[in-house]
Amino acid sequence: MHQELPATVLQHETIYEGRVFAIARDRVRMPNGHESAMEVVHHRGSVVLLPMPDPNHVILVRQYRYPVDRWLWELAAGCLEPGEDPAAAAARECEEEIGLFAGRVEQVGRFFPSPGYCDELMNFFQVTGLRAPGPGERPAPPDADEDIRTRAFSLDEVRAMVLRGEIVDLKTAAGITLI
């Protein structure tokens, strides 16, 4: 039986470390024995929400994305804090980006969005039992760089938006297939 071995790191250098990710340049011996230089974006992971006020609708957020200089409709998402449980992060992001409290948070999938150069693992959660804040409750505030609008869409509407090219965010296109 063929045994699949991992690469061996021969040399490691962190060339950038930021708030969201770090970039490393490694020299590795690949499983086939060849040596190669690899640049890797290290990311602590993220959560992607499928917030469903009812079984036929999902809430999307519209926000400006500077790297692509566009406003996009997408599923709410956010980075994991160091050591944070993904389900707890999903509930937190629901408050921050949707302004609602989650009644139930259920993991429905996990994907590597760009495994050719990045180790980010996206954790997808279906969020149901949504409720507005009650007296004395305040949802977590959005991050300072977020200018978010929310809207509930039927699942059929969202699928049609993907097919028409109105939704170009890959996590949203992938996530909608999970419900």
Q: What do these coordinates show?
A:
The protein has 179 residues and is α+β, with helices and mostly antiparallel strands. 17% of the residues lie in helices and 41% in strands. The chain contains 3 helices and 10 strands. A 4-stranded mixed β-sheet has the order 7-4-9-8, with helices on both faces. A 3-stranded antiparallel β-sheet has the order 1-2-3, with no helix packed on it. A hairpin with a 5-residue loop joins strand 2 (21-29) and strand 3 (35-43). It is elongated. The model has no long low-confidence stretch (mean pLDDT 93).
User: Shape, please?
Assistant: elongated
Helices and strands, in order, run as: EEEEEEEHEEEHH
Instruction: Please summarize the sheet with the most strands.
Output: 4 strands, mixed
Strands, total number = 10
Secondary structure category: alpha+beta
Rg, Cα atoms, Å: 19 Å
**Could you name the CATH class of the largest domain?**
Alpha Beta
How would the blueprint of this fold be written?
Layout: E1 8-17, E2 21-29, E3 35-43, E4 46-51, E5 57-65, E6 70-74, E7 77-79, H1 86-98, E8 104-111, E9 122-128, E10 148-154, H2 155-164, H3 170-176
Parallel strand pairs: 4-9
Antiparallel strand pairs: 1-2, 2-3, 4-7, 5-6, 5-10, 8-9
